[in-house]
Amino acid sequence: MTTAVERPTLKAKERPGDRIFSTSTIVSGSLILAILAAVAVFLLVQSLPAFVADPEKFKGDATNFWQYVGPLAFGTLWSAFLALLMAVPIAIGIALFISHYAPRKLAQGLGYLIDLLAAVPSVVFGLWGIGVLAPLVQPFYTNLVEWFGWFPLFAGPVSGTGRTTLTVAIVLAVMVLPIITALSREIFLQTPVLYEEASLALGATRWEMITMAVLPFGRAGIISASMLGLGRALGETMAVAMVLSPSRDVIFQLLTSQNPTTIAANIALNFPEANGVGVNILLATGLILFVITLVVNMIARVIINRRKAFSGAN
Amino acid sequence: MSKRIEVNDLNVYYSKFLAVEEVSLVIEPRTVTALIGPSGCGKSTFLRTLNRMHEVIPGAYVTGEVLIDGNNLYGPGVDPVLVRRQVGMVFQRPNPFPTMSIGDNVLAGVKLNNRRMAKSDADALIEKSLMGANLWKEVKDRLDKPGSSLSGGQQQRLCIARAIAVEPDVILMDEPCSALDPISTLAIEDLIEEMKADYTIVIVTHNMQQASRVSDRTGFFNIAGTGKPGRLIEYDDTTTIFSNPGVQATEDYVSGRFG
Ligand SMILES: Nc1ncnc2c1ncn2[C@@H]1O[C@H](COP(=O)(O)OP(=O)(O)OP(=O)(O)O)[C@@H](O)[C@H]1O
Ligand SMILES: [Mg+2]
């Protein structure tokens, strides 16, 4: 026998400050969603013709849109993945050096330098890739193919110019390095002293302290920082367009003169001459890039949330 | 395992600031020593010199010596990492690693010494250490949950378990009960009483009853004024300090007539 008791609804008095704050957060939050939605709708609408375009409208030997975009998507993911593979460990190393090893003065100087690097425009990196890096690494590539050609990724024939997928990946790695480093450094500096001291008091060396306290705490932050770097690498246009002569094939080899180009570079190279449904096709590849970025970020979220209870955020 | 501590003419600095001046005392093995005194008089600072945690703070250093069984901790060539494995520490705020499970927290220090432990040895050690910290019954079914999922008092006992798992010679505790309720406090005091059989224990506390309940000897620290260094005013048997202290300032402090 339960009698329904009417629950009095407690309502706190609304203060103007709270009101302004909550309104402004709601407005900016919805603004982001609205902009994202507008971009998605624009891409989607503009892309529709591409999915039903005539076979002869596609460049190269693709006969439908998926055949056309597949190799480009592969090239995008492959070069960005290689870039992250190189950049993340180095970035973490530099960030740890700045946050936990370097003397304070040196750390500050290095910090500024890294922040400056993050502001260098990508055209400059592209020029550096063609002008400096490619000729510099070409002899090294020749040796690599000679000695390790049996390893599929390093199979020949070697490119004579050095302008290969690996070169692009190195350029991209250098480009994303500063942002990952800068964010990781901030995260490592936020490690609670309480836990650093807990590990030191157990007799941890500095490196052991880093593996016990600093890195586990920074895990989610490192993943987020890498995702920002990955975002930049996936969308990078100029550096890739400048270094690679485009080809649209799925090629894993890193050192040959046949190298898959990326979605962004492909758009940049072909947009000036595109007309009619050609424009729609390029926009549709942009939609695919948008989706790839979203999916990659969602995967990162899932990874971060999987060990939420152990994140130290509670 | 328990060892004797001898401190000679110890001065403790934060860069140019002399925080603690001219401390000399002897702590016998298998005893509990309480350090009391007003806030800011350098109890924590002094305690942290006993396992070389003081120098973790940038610019911090000491002069003088701390001998453990005759070996100077501050002698040339002494590795602070090895010192800290010998002299364990429990902090004021419970700090189990939230990124590790309860079981891994207990093993955190042990794994530093010896990475590859048989699973059975590890389990046995977890059980033994948690028993030693009076926590086993409460957590035995959730050893794989994060360390942060425990209550404050349980977390502090987990930290004690973590400290005793490495079997140190000395255990330092800096106000281990200040964040705890009276019942958890009593649990930890009982634990200190039991641990005395195996370890030399030094505890900082603001709680006079606690000092008189758990300790054999008591040291009273004081400062002459802000910016002045802290000094060890009196160091004697706990009963003497609380019933018949030799210095007026000590009597004022323990009877609550201070500042
Ligand atoms: N990291 C630090 N850098 C500089 N000075 C410090 C630092 N930590 C403590 N001090 C100073 O050293 C003196 C002693 O501080 P300490 O923390 O040892 O006091 P305490 O006796 O433990 O006080 P409480 O009972 O409040 O914990 C104080 O004057 C304090 O301001
Ligand atoms: Mg203190």
From TrEMBL, chain A:
CDD domains: TM_PBP2. Residues 73-300 form the ABC transmembrane type-1 domain. SUPFAM superfamilies: MetI-like. The chain crosses the membrane at residues 20-45, 65-98, 110-134, 166-189, 209-230, 281-304. InterPro entries: MetI-like (IPR000515), MetI-like_sf (IPR035906), Phosphate_PstC (IPR011864), Phosphate_Transport_Permease (IPR051124). It is a multi-pass membrane protein. It comes from the Bacteria. Keywords: Cell membrane, Membrane, Phosphate transport, Transmembrane, Transmembrane helix, Transport. It is found in: Cell membrane. Belongs to the binding-protein-dependent transport system permease family. CysTW subfamily. Part of the binding-protein-dependent transport system for phosphate; probably responsible for the translocation of the substrate across the membrane. NCBIfam families: phosphate_pstC. This is Phosphate transport system permease protein. It comes from Cryobacterium sinapicolor.
TrEMBL record, chain B:
Signal peptide: none annotated. PANTHER family: ABC TRANSPORTER I FAMILY MEMBER 17 (PTHR43423). The keyword Transport applies. It comes from Cryobacterium sinapicolor. Residues 5-248 form the ABC transporter domain. InterPro entries: AAA+_ATPase, ABC_transporter-like_ATP-bd, ABC_transporter-like_CS, P-loop_NTPase, PstB-like. Keywords: ATP-binding, Nucleotide-binding, Translocase, Transport. This is Phosphate ABC transporter ATP-binding protein. GO terms for molecular function: ATP binding. Pfam families: ABC_tran. Transmembrane segments: none annotated.
